[in-house]
């Protein structure tokens, strides 16, 4: 997923800064490439395509290509069966991953996931950086992911805003949908969030969506108050991930569903207000939280639920627990946040 790839890219930066002569390759799924384009600390992207994923024959060919690279070190952040097989096939002398029953058969350096964060970075960052201890004990505990936009990409986004007379406005990018339906805040509740933004600020709203989601997005717009609808600009959206990131870089904040888009905004140094899915582990993905990066989670308001049930159990009935997570719980917190970032 995009958030995983972006967060894992910190290892490339950490390694290259400590070892400038090292050659660092980064294995990624094809659709996630945009978040690491122009990354100055990645020498080569090794692309794992859908065709390779779906074909045993092509996967075997891919393994042969990996073997020919003669890697010295493999660091497997994913540590799933397929990635472990890739790591094993690499023939690297040092193979690093997370402790699983199957990784024991392939890797010679294994780590367990830390349960408690030691810094503001969050566990997703710290657990990744911890893997570097096998290379050098002096690596830092955290490092912030970064996205590298070009001047041309930013100029193109500015031109779009200028054409719509929005260049001098306070803009907020709204994450209207999560990566799946079960990770999307209920539309009626999100409409109240948007109404609150418009009632308390002069901000104009851009939506993070793709054309095939337009029907759902329009439902959200119809649930909003008329004044809110006037401030929503559906004609402006990222036609690609890079376009989205460029538009986001010109916004005052990103507000909406926690996920890859939030992580991209943070990597662009754009403030974020994240609404977590009830079953998402906040300690892992509440990255670099402070006055300008704020999150809300059902556990803030119904902590007793999390004493009785596991996140896996809550996920089985995600829609039920989302219904419990009313916008009224955090609207005051949102108003205070908007005063901070606008």
TrEMBL record:
Annotated keywords: Glycosyltransferase, Transferase
Pfam families: Glyco_transf_9
InterPro entries: Glyco_trans_9, LPS_LOS_Heptosyltrfase
UniProt keyword Nucleotide-binding present: no
Gene3D superfamilies: Glycogen Phosphorylase B
Listed PANTHER family: ADP-HEPTOSE--LPS HEPTOSYLTRANSFERASE 2, TETRAACYLDISACCHARIDE 4'-KINASE-RELATED
Protein name stated in the entry: Heptosyltransferase
Source organism of the structure: Mesonia mobilis
């Amino acid at each position: 997923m995009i958030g995983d790839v972006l967060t894992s890219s910190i290892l490339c930066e950490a390694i290259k800064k400590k070892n400038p002569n090292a050659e660092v390759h980064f294995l990624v799924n094809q659709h996630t490439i945009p978040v690491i384009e122009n990354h100055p600390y990645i020498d080569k992207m090794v692309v794992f395509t859908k065709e390779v994923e779906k074909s045993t024959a092509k996967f075997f060919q891919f393994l042969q290509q990996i073997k020919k690279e003669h890697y010295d070190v493999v660091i497997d952040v994913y540590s799933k069966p397929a990635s472990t097989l890739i790591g094993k096939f690499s023939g690297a002398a040092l193979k690093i991953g997370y402790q699983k029953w199957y990784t024991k058969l392939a890797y010679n350096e294994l780590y367990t996931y830390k349960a408690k964060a030691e810094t503001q970075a969050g566990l997703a960052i710290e657990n990744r950086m911890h893997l570097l201890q096998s290379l050098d004990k002096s690596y830092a505990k955290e490092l912030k992911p970064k996205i590298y936009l070009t001047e041309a990409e930013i100029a193109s986004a500015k031109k779009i805003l200028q054409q719509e007379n929005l260049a001098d406005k306070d803009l907020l990018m709204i994450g209207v949908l999560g990566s799946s339906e079960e990770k999307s805040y209920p539309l009626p509740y999100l409409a109240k969030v948007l109404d609150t933004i418009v009632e308390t600020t002069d901000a104009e709203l851009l939506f993070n969506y793709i054309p095939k989601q337009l029907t759902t997005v329009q439902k959200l717009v119809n649930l909003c108050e008329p004044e809110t609808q006037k401030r929503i600009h559906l004609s402006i959206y990222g036609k690609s991930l890079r376009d989205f990131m460029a538009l986001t870089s010109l916004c005052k904040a990103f507000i909406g569903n926690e996920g890859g888009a939030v992580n991209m905004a943070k990597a662009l140094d754009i403030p974020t207000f994240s609404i977590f899915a009830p079953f998402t582990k906040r300690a892992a993905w509440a990255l670099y939280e402070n006055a300008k990066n704020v999150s809300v989670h059902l556990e803030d308001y119904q902590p007793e639920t999390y004493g009785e049930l596991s996140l896996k159990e809550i996920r089985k009935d995600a829609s039920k627990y989302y219904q419990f997570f009313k916008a009224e719980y955090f609207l005051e917190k949102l108003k205070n946040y908007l005063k901070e970032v606008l």
